[in-house]
Design a protein that fits this description.
By secondary structure, the chain is mostly helical. It is 71% helix and 2% strand. It has one domain: Ammonium transporter AmtB like domains (Ammonium transporter fold, Orthogonal Bundle).
């Protein structure tokens, strides 16, 4: 019989709160500081409303479809709608089932909130609300089931310790689909109105990420300890490498580059955190800021898409690198699965299948959802509202009174 572990329960409780900090105030401050002053409240509000909507959906039916008994590996069977029939003594392994549901809830909320950084300053608030309701139901929940809920990618053997495919690739490619529909901003310049907010947000994200990755072990054990250690290391390497790139390319280091590098390192290590050792982490952390910088500097310019805060460039691209790198550097002594360097080249193929499947599914479904919303209620604010700012026009509020 399964027996409750007080130690493991305490650790996952703490981790759940840490991941909550990543969304509010982490993403809210990070994105809010990068936005124009006239859009700071609207930018923060996008995170707040996404968090609230996803919370309601997850408890009512989201968790059940994502983690219910699989139906042909595609979606879960929706037993226990509204959490009916789930008691406080029911267990998931050796932690309370309600705690596991809450822990997974924070991942769903975070993924939805991440998308908002791509569309700030030009999307209707009503369209964003409608988008989140449909997107979390038709995009995130099925992908979470495929990878984590005994779906077809899990059965295939795809590795995603804490959300490289489910969270970062999913949100990054969805953000790209949405910005392609929205088109470019009237004023594409985006000098952060309060970089101090963004540094604070990045600090909350870095801090909360320890629960994001460490908590995914679902136990207070060596895997959790290793995940925290390598996650922090990847962030530090990402920060330093981006600062070096900035210094070489721009002639000076920038704080924005530093926090962008740290986030790219954290994104890349997320799928690998419970599978890799320090040498593998160093290579993962080294590669993430380089490929994200190239994506933001060259790919974005060449393809002319307007991803305002580079959600695809950092989360999508570094997420892809991290997912593939997991198949290369996975150490059997840590996570029980060998990667390419440890005699299992097939793991890279499996990781590539997972990456491609999530990229295609999330992009196509997001584009369809966005297109339908655009046809019905419209995606984009008026030119007048966009130029003058969404805080006053959509909310009749302002972030600053001085």
């Amino acid at each position: 019989m399964e027996v409750l572990s007080a130690g493991n329960t305490a650790w996952v409780l703490i981790s759940t709160v840490l991941v909550l900090v990543m969304s509010i105030p982490g993403i809210a401050f990070f994105y809010g500081g990068l936005a124009k002053k006239k859009n700071v409240l609207n930018t923060i509000f996008l995170t707040l409303i996404a968090f609230a909507i996803v919370t309601i959906i997850w408890v009512c039916y989201g968790y059940q479809f994502a983690f219910g008994q699989t139906i042909q590996g595609i979606i879960g069977y929706p037993a226990n709608l509204f959490l009916s029939g789930i008691g406080i003594h029911d267990l998931h392994g050796d932690i309370p089932l309600l705690l596991y549901i809450g822990f997974q809830l924070t991942f769903a909320c975070l993924t939805a909130a991440l998308i908002s950084g791509a569309i700030i300053g030009r999307m209707k608030f009503s369209a964003w609300v409608a988008f989140i309701v449909v997107w979390i139901s038709l995009v995130y929940i099925p992908i979470a089931h495929w990878v984590w809920g005994n779906g077809w990618l899990k059965e295939l053997g795809a590795l995603d310790f804490a959300g490289g495919t489910v969270v970062h690739i999913c949100s990054g490619i969805s953000a790209l689909a949405l910005v392609l529909l929205l088109g470019v901003r009237k004023d594409k310049s985006l000098i952060p109105h309060n970089l101090g907010y963004s540094v604070l947000g990045a600090a909350f994200l870095w801090f909360g990420w320890m629960g994001f990755n460490g908590g995914s072990a679902l136990a207070a054990n060596g895997v959790a300890a290793s995940a925290i250690l390598v996650s922090n290391l990847a962030a530090a390497i990402g920060l330093v490498i981006w600062v070096i790139i900035d210094t070489i390319k721009e002639g000076k280091p920038t704080v924005l580059g530093a926090i962008s590098g740290a986030i790219s390192g954290l994104v890349a290590i997320t799928p690998a955190a419970g599978y890799v050792d320090v040498p593998g982490t160093i290579l993962i952390g080294f590669g993430a800021p380089i490929i994200s910088y190239l994506a933001i500097t060259y790919l974005k310019t060449h393809l002319k898409y307007d991803d305002a805060l580079d959600v695809f460039g950092i989360h999508g691209v570094s997420g892809i690198w991290g997912a593939i790198a997991t198949g290369i550097f996975a150490v059997p002594a840590i996570g029980g699965v060998a990667g390419l360097l440890y005699g299992n080249p097939g793991q890279v193929t499996i990781q590539l299948i997972a990456v491609v499947a999530v990229l295609i599914y999330a992009f196509v479904l997001t584009y369809i959802i966005g297109k339908i919303i655009d046809i019905t209620i419209g995606l984009r604010v008026t030119e007048k509202h966009e130029i003058e700012g969404l805080d006053t026009h959509l909310h009749e509020e302002t972030g600053y009174r001085l």
